[in-house]
Amino acid sequence: MTPFSKCTINYIGTVLAILGVIFILLKFYNYGIEDIFSAYSISDWIIISGLALLYGLASIILALAWWYILFGLGIKVDFYWAVKTYAISQITKYVPGNIFQFVGRQALGMAKGLPGWSLAKSSIWEIGLIAFSGSLFCLLLLPLFIYSVYVNTETSFIMFFSVVFIFSIFLWRMMNFYYAKAFCCYIIFLSISGLLFTTLIFMQGELFYLDGRNYFLIICGSYVISWLIGLVTPGSPAGVGIRELVLLFLLKGVVQESDLLAVILIGRLITVSGDVVFYILGFILGLRNRDGII
User: Fold this and answer.
1) How many domains does the chain have?
2) Any stretches that span the bilayer, and where are they (predicted)?
3) What distance in Å separates the CA atoms of residue 85 and residue 60, rounded to the nearest whole number?
4) How far apart are CA 281 and CA 286, in angstroms?
């Protein structure tokens, strides 16, 4: 791909992200953003703060997955260093371009004296594994698009679990046990992220049973798929705008639009706050490591 093509794709992704943000802001304006915030009580905000803290702590699972990938590539590093490096670099995903978190880990790793090519391969493995992990959640959305007595939330979950199990065994037997561990870490993290979003839907008083169908796993899967599309969209920092548009499309008719907009806003607040918590954790680990405590 030529530099011009890469630049064009990045610009397109950035424009789509901006249009998505504008679209969401217009929706918020129509419904009244003040009304959205005022609908939450103090106890609700305490729960939301707890969810943000949980998301930040769950991000350690991402660092653990990266640590496993490094081990799979023959790079032996301290776990605390891996968490610190991942946390500090992860915050840069909000910089337009959607690649600076990987660039940051590459730079910090090379500063430690780790081989550059192996670090680059770790980024490739990370992107590949987490993208594949996210794509598997499409199986949970099958009841949303296929109307059949044989396709329901139970069968879609069995399919999802079966593919996760089979691919884990494949990585373990054919590739590397550490890659299988990293893959499982990504599945766990994405599941937690989807469950946090589903919790926000529940806080809105929405029912998971509509027309005799259970939408719990569908909502969880929809969030992960929207996250994945935001991840792979070039030029969209942290999937801002893209993720929200995909959620509005997938959950239209499942969740009331006003409630969905509120959850999207609070959900983004939780992920940003969680990333800040994770960054602070990495910063503290860096200070402790510098002082020789770890």
Assistant:
1) 1
2) 12-33, 45-69, 127-150, 157-174, 180-203, 215-240, 260-287
3) 11
4) 9
A 10 A CB-CB count for 40 gives 15
- Euclidean distance between CA atoms 242 and 220, whole angstroms: 17
49: tokens are 């703060």
CA–CA dist 43, 59 (Å, integer): 25
| Structural domain boundaries enclosing 175 | 3-290
Q: Could you tell me what percent of the chain has a pLDDT over 70?
A: 77
**Greatest Cα-to-Cα distance within the chain, rounded to the nearest angstrom:** 62
Q: Say if residue 145 is exposed, middle or buried (CB neighbours under 10 Å; 0-12, 13-18, 19+).
A: exposed
Query: Which residues 6+ apart lie within 8 Å of 99 measured at CB?
Result: none
- Determine the distance from the C-alpha atom of residue 186 to the mean position of all C-alpha atoms in its chain, rounded to a whole number: 9
Distance CA 67, CA 64 (A): 5
Average pLDDT, stretch 163-177?
92
Give the global pTM: 0.84
- Report d(CA 142, CA 135) in Å as an integer: 12
Query: How does DSSP classify residue 137?
Result: G
